[in-house]
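Form P-L/3: holo structure prediction, ligand copper (II) ion.
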Amino acid sequence: MQDRFFTADKTALDYSPSQQQISRGYIGDVFITNGAIEPTFDAEAKEIRFRLLNGSNSTVYDLGFSNGKSFKQIGGDNSLLEKPVTMSRVVLSPGERAEIVVDLSNDSGASFTLHEYRNNKTFMTINVNKNATAVTSLPSALTTLDTIDLSQVSRTRPFTLDMVNGVFTINRKAMDMNRIDEVVPLGDTEIWEVTNMMGMDHNFHIHATHFRVIERNGSATNVLENEKGYKDVVYLKGNESVKLLVKMTDYTDESVPYMYHCHFLEHENNAMMGQFTVV
Ligand SMILES: [Cu+2]
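OUTPUT (holo model):
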């Protein structure tokens, strides 16, 4: 799912963000699903699994169905959740993924949309107009995730998302391809503590691994039920903080780094990124 601007004759994408859009969010006026503008999906009257990916530059999507229908989220960025989470909205920041199961078995003849509520836009129309060819039911237990063992943590690394002299920074440093910011030992369990110092939305994405969100705004109880699987992007509203349990498990190289960055394209392209090696 993406949002885009097009040229006036609609023959090409128009990418020309203003300084305001770079900073405050670049929200296209055309919303797109699988490359199509407001497509229609003819659905069978059964449980359907949707794999949602926010592929936008910098738009946070608040997604739900126009008829208020609830669904079950079963997975996030990198893994299943241990059990399905019933919800009627799912918020995805750029780069985040969610797998949801929607039960359409009693919806024959219904028509509704997959809607984005922040910008009041339609992503897709769903017409339940086909008979089910197979009947499934979602299990109540989906997987078993590793137990979070904080006694194994060897260090905590702070990461602040901030603006310095009009430039987006992490730990008050602008991205520099000639600088390695962090050196991470292979196999160590670490906490990466990410703090959004600004009033605006950001998120945080780590290459080379996935992580668990273990605290949000100072408490484990604030971690959302649908962000308890393995993730590689975590959303931070203005002035929020998260603690991530991070472990690098492969691909060491003394000189070639990986990146961590805000996944809002206009922010990462304006220096909100850093580099680390795994050794
Ligand atoms: Cu950002």
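COMMENT: DSSP finds two helices and 22 strands in the chain.
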